[in-house]
């Protein structure tokens, strides 16, 4: 089977990291052993530096919404050109913790920049490059942020008002409706149920390809 690019999306506390592990193990069981895992923002030396800049609260200088958008897209160009495309060319599967949908949700909806503007910028930066399959973990932000709080100190995004996350969730659901190669899983269910549903989705996806 040709290598695929799979993305896990969702708000904070949705359980993306453990789902990435579940997918990786399931792919191994399906005899896909060449898997590159990555995350966004991040995944290259430059993108990881930008990640820590945008996640850290800095009282000296406010990051403007448009700057935040451009930084996220800059990270993505670095990751796509230097990691994702070369891996796929090498027949390695790629599994990413977040991708473009996060920018639509957080900068487009959350920051109010608009989904169309994010789309235009993506066309310019990435052409039509997109994941082969997306698993969206849906969670009520109140529950998700409670989980995030238990993990430790909140970062610059996690400190946003609940309204920011409500808008982001709404955008995720809008994107999901328009995309055939994406599925939604209710991440408020017990973890073993979520993980089983993720495994089933991966088995199903690989069977159809
Ligand atoms: P996380 O990897 O712990 O989820 O942290 C990444 C944070 O960055 C998260 O709050 C979502 C945010 N983010 C954006 O705002 N826009 C983006 O395009 C991406 C990839 C992430």
Summarize the structure.
The protein has 209 residues and is an alpha/beta fold. The chain contains eight helices and five strands.
What would your notes on this structure say?
The protein has 209 residues and is of the alpha/beta class. The protein contains eight helices and five strands. The protein has a five-stranded parallel beta sheet with strand order 2-3-1-4-5, sandwiched between helices. The longest helix has 25 residues, at 65-89. The protein is globular and about 50 Å long. The N and C termini lie close together (7 Å). The mean pLDDT is 97. Thymidine-5'-phosphate binds at residues 12, 39-41, 72, 97-98, 102-103, 106-107, 157.
Q: How is the secondary structure organized here?
A:
Blueprint: E1 5-10, H1 16-29, E2 35-39, H2 45-55, H3 65-89, E3 93-97, H4 100-110, H5 115-126, E4 133-138, H6 141-151, H7 162-177, E5 182-186, H8 191-208
Helix pairs in contact: 1-8, 2-3, 3-4, 3-5, 4-5, 4-7
The structure holds thymidine-5'-phosphate.
Query: Main beta sheet, described?
Result: 5 strands, parallel
| Separation, N- and C-terminal Cα atoms | 7 Å
Mean pLDDT: 97
The quaternary state of the protein chains shown equals: single chain
Return residue spans where pLDDT drops below 50 for at least 5 consecutive residues: none
Residue fraction in strands: 5-15%
What are the distinct ligands in this entry? thymidine-5'-phosphate
Helix and strand succession? EHEHHEHHEHHEH
Rounded radius of gyration (Å): 16 Å
The total count of strands amounts to: 5
Structural class: alpha/beta
Total of helices: 8
What does the overall shape look like?
globular
């Amino acid at each position: 089977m040709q290598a695929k690019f799979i993305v896990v999306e969702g708000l904070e506390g949705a359980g993306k990291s453990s789902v990435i592990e579940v997918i990786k193990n399931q792919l191994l069981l399906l005899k896909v052993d060449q898997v590159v895992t990555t995350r966004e923002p991040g995944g290259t030396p430059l993108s990881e530096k930008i990640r820590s800049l945008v996640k850290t609260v800095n009282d000296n200088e406010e990051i403007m919404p448009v700057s935040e958008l451009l930084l996220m897209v800059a990270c993505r160009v670095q990751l796509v050109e230097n990691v994702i495309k070369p891996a796929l060319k090498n027949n390695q599967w790629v599994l990413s913790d977040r991708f473009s949908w996060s920018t639509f949700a957080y900068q487009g909806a959350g920051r109010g920049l608009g989904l169309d503007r994010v789309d235009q910028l993506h066309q310019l930066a990435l052409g039509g490059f997109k994941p082969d399959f997306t698993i969206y973990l849906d969670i009520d932000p109140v529950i998700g942020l409670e989980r995030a709080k238990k993990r430790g100190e909140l970062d610059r995004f996690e400190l946003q008002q609940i309204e920011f996350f409500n808008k982001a969730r709404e955008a995720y659901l809008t994107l999901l409706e328009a995309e055939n190669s994406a599925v939604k899983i209710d991440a408020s269910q017990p973890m073993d149920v979520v993980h089983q549903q993720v495994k089933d989705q991966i088995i199903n996806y690989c069977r159809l390809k």
